[in-house]
Amino acid sequence: MKKVLLVIAVIVLTFQLYSQNNSLVMTRHRVLNNKLPDSFNNFKIIHLSDLHSKTFGKDNNKIVNKIIKENPDIIVITGDLIDRRKYNEEKAMLLVEKIKDIAPIYYVTGNHEGWSGKFSSLEKKLNENGVIVLRNESIILRKGHEEISILGVDDPAFSTTGYGEDYKGNKIIEDEIEKIKKAGSFNILLSHRPELFNLYREKDIDLVFSGHAHGGQIIIPFIGGILSPNQGFFPKYYKGLYKESSTTMVVSRGLGNSVFPQRIFNNPEIVCVELVRR
Description:
It comes from Clostridium malenominatum. Residues 43-215 form the Calcineurin-like phosphoesterase domain. This is Metallophosphoesterase. InterPro entries: Calcineurin-like_PHP (IPR004843), Metallo-depent_PP-like (IPR029052), Metallophosphoesterase_sf (IPR051158). By secondary structure, the chain is α/β, with parallel strands linked by helices. It has helices spanning 2-22, 61-70, 89-99, 111-116, 119-128, 167-180, 197-202; strands spanning 25-32, 43-48, 74-78, 105-108, 132-133, 137-143, 146-152, 187-190, 207-210, 219-220, 224-225, 227-228, 232-233, 240-244, 247-251, 269-276. It has a single domain, classed as Purple Acid Phosphatase, chain A, domain 2. A 6-stranded mixed β-sheet has the order 1-16-2-3-4-5, covered by helices on one side. Strands 6-7-8-9-15-14 form a 6-stranded mixed β-sheet. Strands 10-11 form a two-stranded antiparallel sheet. The termini are far apart. The mean pLDDT is 92.
């Protein structure tokens, strides 16, 4: 009897661990801001991050179907489409090819694109599929006579050596944001790193989309995430909405895994943000 119970326990545990890594959830947020132009009221943004070449269902249909149901105005991807350790452009592009006709896609790099040393190949394929790759540049979105700005900065991995990011890399991001932000516009920044929130706030960015933290990998209920890159143990910015002054940051828990292969209480997520003028 004990052996039977042990087998059952192992089966249940295995199923739970598999489910934690593969049961995709949709997380919805409403971001209220009186600076938002009237024409962009109820503007809907799908946010994807940290795929790490993972797939969800045949041809990524689990992701695709969830996005279709939301009927977004745009899709933003905040880096780490691939994983430098198990580099696979085909899996990354499989998702892009399936969602590119749903809504315009805006993309910025993550640290794994920088570390891979192969981003030029991936960038070419993204461009060929109509993805707007923002590399320290901005673009204007217009509706009628009103507009908002989407800014995108390269990950610090492109401007530093080795696997650690230093002041130089962060200073480059600070300088690039200053160059590309649009005075008087509602500025949306795509940047892989949530730990730089204070910098985004100091630059008066209205809305930031980030990833990188993987939801803290393991989330302890009522306590929070355990560990995230560049923030260490019990990270401050690991999932959800953060607001200080006039800046709101949306941090995705991400879709895939990298070094640590298991999520706990931290399902992969798609984020849907609705902009609301208040």
